[in-house]
Amino acid sequence: MRTTARAIVPIVLVVAISLFFEGHNLPGGGFIGGVLTVTAFGIVYMAFGLDFLERGVLGREVDPGKEPSRDRVVLAYRRLFAYGFAIAVLSGLVPLVFDRPFLTQTFVMLEGVPIYDHLEVASAMAFDFGVYCVVVGGLLTILSVVGAE
Amino acid sequence: MTMTTMTATPVGTESQLVIAPMLIVLVAAAATLFLGRHPRARAAVSLAAGAGYGLAVAAIDWYIVLAPSAPGIATYQVGDWPAPFGITLVADGLSAFMLTMVAVLGIGSLVYSTRHLPGGEGRSYYFPLFHFLALGVTGAFLTGDLFNLFVWFEVMLMASYVFVAYSGGPQHTRAAFWYVALNLLASAVFLLGVGGIYATTGTLNMADLAQRLAEPAAYGLEPVPVVGLLGMLLSVFAIKAGLVPFQFWIPTAYRAAPPQITALLAGATKKVGIYAIIRLSFTVFAGAEVAVDLPLPVVDATIAGDSPLPFVGAALLVMGAGSILVGGIGAVGRDTMEGVFAYSSIGQVGFIAVPVAIAASTVDPTLREFAIIAALVFALNHTLAKGLLFLAVGTVRSATGTSRFADLGGLAGRSPPLAIAVFIASLALVGIPPLSGFFGKFLVFDAAARAGAGPVLVLLLVGSLLTIAYATRMWNRSFWGARTDAVDAATIDPVEVGVLVVLAATIVVVGVGFDPVYEFAETAAEAALDTDTYVDAVDPQKASDLGGSSGGDH
Predict the structure, then answer these.
(1) Where are the domains of chain A?
(2) Between chain A and chain B, how many beta carbons pairs sit less than 8 Å apart?
(3) What are the tens digits of pLDDT across the range A75-88?
(4) DSSP string covering B318-362
C-alpha cells in the first residue's frame, strides 16, 4: 500500500494540476482538479495514517489525545476553504468595475511559452482557482474530521 | 500577444439592481466566513448586509416595479452570455413581491440572531450559513432558468440541512436524517424533470421554454410529455412547500432547527415552493398547447383543457384541501408551541394552494388574476405572522428553557410586549380585521365564492374554525393562566421582544394601509400571468441569430 501510494500520489497530483489548467475550454477545471487532488491526499491518509501529514511532512508535534478537528492542518484546510470562496466571489465581482455583468470573463493569449507553445491566460482561471481551493479545503476538512471518528 | 475583445454591453442601472441583493449576501457570506473568530465584527457585517439587502430590495420594488415610470421588469445576463444560453436573472412584479416579503422577515430574523445563538463551536458558521440560505432563496426568486432554479434550491437546502442538525442532539440528527433523505430524493426527481424538459423542448431558459411551448409546431416539438414532467416538478415544489401528502417532514425539522431559522424555513423557503409553482404553472407552462384529457375514476368527472393548467389546478386543490385539514386537526392536539405552529404552517400553506388551484382551474382571466392576488396576500400574511410566532417560540424557549404548554402559563403578565406581539400574530392567523390576515383570508374566500365552488368554501370555513381553535388553545395554555416557576424565573431579552414588536407593527400597518399592498400584489399577479412581457424582456435569441461573435468559440 505505501509503495503503491509513493508511485501513485505524484502522478495523481500532476494529472490534477493539468486538469485544472485545461479547465476553461476542455473538460476539467477547478472542481475536478480539486477532487483529484483530494484523492491524492486520501491515498496518503489511507496508506500512512491521519497524523502523517502533520508529523511526517510538516514535522510538527502531534498530541495524540486531542480532537482531530483542532489539528493545525485541519484549520489550514478551513482557511483554504474560506480564501478560495473569497477568491471566487472577488473574481466574479471584478467585471462590475469595468461595467460588465457579474462573472464576465475574458482571456489573453501568450505566445512562445516553452513546452505549451501558446498559453491562454483566462480570467476564468481566477474563479477556477477559487473553486479548486474550496473543493480541496472543504473535502479535506470533511475527510480528516469524519475519518478520525 | 493578442487580446480578444468581447461584445461590449454596458449594463444599465436597473439591470445592476437585479443582481444586487444576491451579490450583497454572497459577499456577506464570504466576509463572515473570515470573521469566524470575531463575533462582534461578524454580527456587524451581517447586520450591514441585512440593511444593504433591504435597501436593494426596496430599490428593486421602486425603480423596477412600482415607480410611475418603472419598466415593470428588468433582466440581467450573468457573464454577458445572451439568453437562452447564459443564465438570465429576471426581476418582475412577482419576484419583487416575494423578495420584499422575505426581506422583512429575513432582516428581523438576522437582528434576532445577533442576540440568541445556539450551539458551541458551530457558531462561527452560523452567519455564513444564514447568508447562504438567504442567497438560495433570493436566487430562486430571481432566476429565469430552470436548471439555475435547481441550483438555488440546492444552495438553500445545503444551508438548511446544517441548520436542522445544528444543535447536534439525537432528535436533531434524526430530524436532519429524514430531512436530508427526503430532499435528496426530491432533488433527484427535480433533476429528472429538468432533464426531461430539456430533452423534450431543447431549452431550459424559462422565457424560451414559454415561447417554444406556445408554438410547438414552429420548433418541431412534441409537447405532450411536458405535462407529466411538470407534474414531477410540482411534486418537488409541493415537498418544499410542505403540502399534503408531503407534509410529514415539517414538524420534526421545524422543532430541530433553531427557532429564528424555523421562522425563515416557514416564512421564506416554503414561499420559494409556492413561488416556483406560480411562476412555472402560469408564466411558463400556461401557454403550452397540450390537450389534457384526464377522466377521474371516483367522482366521474373529466379534467380537460388545452394547456396543463387544469391538471395543475386539480392536483393543487386536492393537496391544498388535504393540507388545510391535516394541518388544522394536527395543530389542535400539539403540546408544544412550535408543534402547534408547525402544523399550523401546513394548514396555512393549504390556504395558499387553494386559491392557486382556483386560478389554475378557471378560464376567466379576471378571476385567475384575482385568485393569484389572494394567494399572494395570504402568503404575505403567513410569512409575517408565522415568522413572528416562531421567533416568539425562540424568545420563550431562551427565557424559560421550555416551550411545552405543561410548563408554561401566565406569560402575558410576565412580559406584556411579548404577549401583545404574539396576540396580534395569532389574530392575523385567525384573520381578524384590520390585520393583514383578515384581507388574506377574505380574498381567498372571495376567490372561492366567485369561482362558485361551494365545497371549497365549506372546506375553507372548517380550516378557519380549526385555526381559531388552535390559536385560542395556544394562547390560553401559555400566556394566560397561573404563572409557572419557569415563567417566573424567566429573563426576557429586550432586543428579541423589540424584533417581535416591530413585526407585529408591520402586520398592523399592512392591514390598516392595505391599498398599496393590494396594488403591489396586483402588479405581482399581472406579472405572473403576463408571459409575453416576460418573454420580450428576456428576449431569448435563436442559435442562428448569434453568428460567432458571442464568445461561444471561447
Answers:
(1) 2-148
(2) 61
(3) 788 888 888 888 88
(4) HHHHHHHHHHHHHHHT-SBHHHHHHHHHHHHHHHHHHHHHHHHH-
